[in-house]
Amino acid sequence: MFSDTVIVHWDNEASPTTLGCIPSTRSIYPVEADLNVSENGVSWTTATGNVINIQATFIFGATVVSNPTQSVRTLHSSAVLRRGLEAIQANNAPGNSSFWLLHAVELSRGRKDKQPGIRQILLQSKNAGARQCVEAVIAAAGLGQLSKKILVLINPFGGTKKAKHIYEHVVQPMFQIAGLKIDLHETQATEHATEIARTLPLDQYSAAITISGDGVFHELINGLLTRPDWEQARTLPVGIVGSGSANAMSKNLDTMFPELAALSVIKGQTRPMDVFSVTQNETVMYSHLQLMWALLADVDFESESYRWMGGDRMTVAAIIRILRLRTYHGKLYLLPVNQADQYRKSPSSSTQPSALGPPRLYTSDPLQHEHWPQIISTTFTYFLATNLPWISSDFLAAPSSRLADGALEVVYSETMSSVQALQSVADPESGKYLQFPFIKTSRVRALVLEPHGWSWNKDGVTDRKEDKWLDVSGEKISASPVRVEVHPGVMNVLAPVWLDEDEWSRHAHKAKMTA
């Protein structure tokens, strides 16, 4: 516990012109107060008994400033962060100053699903000194965990093309205030992020993040796990600031706004995350999100024509494709989680095309799957194998999935009409589509998919046409047979302390009860 007597000169959250946030105080500034800093956060109590609390979870910086700075009367992130950086950069005599700024993310009405702002408070130490106050806050807020450089990969052309703006106006200033060292790279083409990750000098970095959609994040993971030193590379924390049009990973981490995502990176807390390997023609890639075929893959790729629409592009593409639904034919081999152990090969006997990446215990042998317990040869209108609950920011595909549960959730439909397909996408955020009798599910450790083509006819055979693509976390791969396997807890993902993975199951259960 650290305490001091301070003068609070201004607090932008108490301004009546903020983003609709409820002011915590209407005190007339400046006001003298008793400051307390603990692992719970920062609080101060005025002479009138008014207590102001700021949770440690949302504090991302504390900085000494030379002189009193003009008050900020907004919570708008870019404006507040710009003013904060100006004050820090004008800091000419930090050792002698008694003034310091406290920086925190301010939730709108306490909700993480609403646009947050940036809170900034100017305080003056009367006893301990600004430097001692700042050091106490930094320690209490758990800052300074990332001492080396942060690799930041920006995709300036992807999704809504907002990545560079998000970096310059939110992420970069937050990182600078927090004292992080940034190594910025802009991706120039597909697979550029993979190339950077494969050659990264790991000992120079504390973490690697992307400001992008899920595609570049997929490339980052694939690059790290296809290095000769993948066992070391996999320990590098990875994170994402969503700037795409789907932003599934951001939704799964509950960091849908750049301020929350940047805060999560600054804190440096990680959770284990499963990845899965996709083996095709003896080439192996690794990813984090999903494998899609049939309707969902069609919608994802055909929606590229509507990227200018942002998140609505998926809805438009889905309606267009559902009105003329294709029937696919294929063979699916499933290895359920509860039966996986008896089909496992030892790592020493698991041959691989190369020594790169986690050993494949169930899919290293091209014929290993022929003896699995579930083999399905039929038509498909819908196929998804997901590693995470949300496959986009508005589609809760598998509420029971978790970051590190060692399983893929396979969801498929053998015969689905256009009307049924519309029903399945009518309320995507609820997860209710899993209740329909034409939807089948299975939790697996591994699967093999052999696509056999598609037809406009319901038998999937008459006038059959060749498949072109499968979809791996947004990346196109050829529609050839694939062997897919989960690798439990391989990566460390930067995740916020407030992430409650059980929330998605509760959300789906509530939707089911109110249906």
Notes on the structure:
This protein is 23% helix and 33% strand. The protein is α+β, with helices and mostly antiparallel strands and 515 residues long. The protein has three domains: 2-140, PH-domain like (Roll), CATH 2.30.29.30; 149-268, 3-Layer(aba) Sandwich (Rossmann fold); 278-486 and 501-513, Tumour Suppressor Smad4 (Sandwich). The strands form four sheets. Strands 12, 13, 14, 15, 16, 17, 20, 21, 22, 23 and 24 form an eleven-stranded antiparallel sheet that branches. A seven-stranded antiparallel sheet has the order 4-3-2-1-7-6-5, sandwiched between helices. A hairpin with a 4-residue loop joins strand 3 and strand 4 (51-55). Residues 16-25 have low confidence and may be disordered.
> So how many helices?
12
Q: What is the CA-CA span between the terminal residues? A: 49 Å
> Can you count the beta strands?
24
Rg over CA atoms, rounded to whole Å, is 25 Å
Protein name: DAGKc domain-containing protein
GO molecular function: ATP binding; lipid kinase activity
Domain DAGKc: 145-282
Keywords: ATP-binding, Kinase, Nucleotide-binding, Transferase
